[in-house]
Design a protein that fits this description.
The chain is 0% helix and 51% strand. The protein contains no helices and eleven strands.
């Protein structure tokens, strides 16, 4: 499956962005879909995921209540709605697909397919 992430940009603190991850060669409904981010000089970290079964969602603590992950099966696209953005959210955001077990949902190594990344910059 090929993933194409888009929607990043420059936004002020408190602003919003919606990231999209369009899939081809496979369906988003067949995979657990995740968003990860990587800031300069840091490891790629988990942000959010939506499970293949049941559509359960999980978030890293720092984005709970501000970010929402969703899946549109008709458009074969996964979204990350980001509100109340903070400078510390600045990073390259990547979407990923895989079939991780429950205990590995936050593990980037458990995802097999990755998009190219989209830059999100939040100015203070």
């Amino acid at each position: 499956v090929q993933l194409q992430a888009s929607g990043g940009g420059l936004v002020q603190t408190g602003g919003s962005l919606r990231l999209s991850c369009a899939a081809s060669g496979g369906t988003v409904s067949s995979y657990t879909m995740g968003w990860f981010r990587q800031a300069p000089g840091k490891e790629r970290e988990f942000v959010a995921t939506i499970r293949v079964s049941g559509g359960y969602t999980y978030y890293t603590d720092s984005v709970k209540g501000r970010f929402t992950i969703s899946r549109d099966n008709r458009r074969n696209t996964v979204y990350l709605q980001m509100n109340s953005l903070k400078p510390e959210d600045t990073a390259v955001y990547y979407c990923a697909a895989g079939r991780p077990i429950l205990s590995s949902l936050r593990d980037k190594n458990a995802y097999n397919y990755w998009g190219q990344g989209t830059q999100v910059t939040v100015s203070s």
